[in-house]
Amino acid sequence: MQDNRKPLTENENLILFSEVEGICPLCAKSLIYSKGGRQYKIFEGAHIYPLNPSTHEISLLKDEEKLSEDVNDINNYIALCRDCHRKFDNPRTVAEYRKLLSIKKQFIARNENRKQYSNYQIEYEIKAILTTLASDIDWILEPETLNLDAIKVDEKANGTLSRLTKRKIKSDVAEYYLFIKEQFTELDKTNGDTFETIATQVKAFYMVLKKAGHTQEDIYQNLSEWLSKKTENSSLEACKIVISFFVQNCEVFS
């Protein structure tokens, strides 16, 4: 049987390692270990669709989705620890194939979204709000803040938003909406139309994600990560609170 193997380049290995964020996506084992002051990789680029499929594998996967017709395309690779790679290949099953394909598709979609981050700016002034939210300050919130009705979240959420995320958004709105609104008011006093500018920027990136066909769950997660990355890796939890504010305020899920 002809071997179609094409060795991965150093850059391709780096892409695969970064894609899984240094953790085997199947067993959560670290893909790097240290010894003698040096770092060593313990992962391999696994072909999702087999490199040299047997007659049985061709029949087994004949109706399954492929991410590339070229088995050596980077989209047909995923970084796995050596143990998981061996288990995945021997024997190959449809269930495991679909599982890895689904994981890889999520990585591909995430990478495509991240490429957009640099194209959509966010006013740096919002960093002050994120820093306050992430601090240990015990704010004195007005009673009505804690009872704010998050009805707009119920009205706008569809079946693509998980129940847990919907609950978190509603909780964040109830607790922080008026507080964040007050913070924006204070920013506007010193920096003009800061709120309108930031709201427009959030809305613009939301529309890009929506137009691309992403689920509400993916949109919420991507907006939160985008906000964190664009503000020097601000607390992701603080960013989720701010995105929840914009859900209630109608810039997101409108």
Automatic annotation (TrEMBL):
Transmembrane segments: none annotated. This is HNH endonuclease. Residues 41-91 form the HNH nuclease domain. Residues 114-253 form the ABC-three component systems C-terminal domain. InterPro entries: ABC-3C_CTD11, HNH_nuc. It comes from the Bacteria. It holds the Pfam family CTD11.
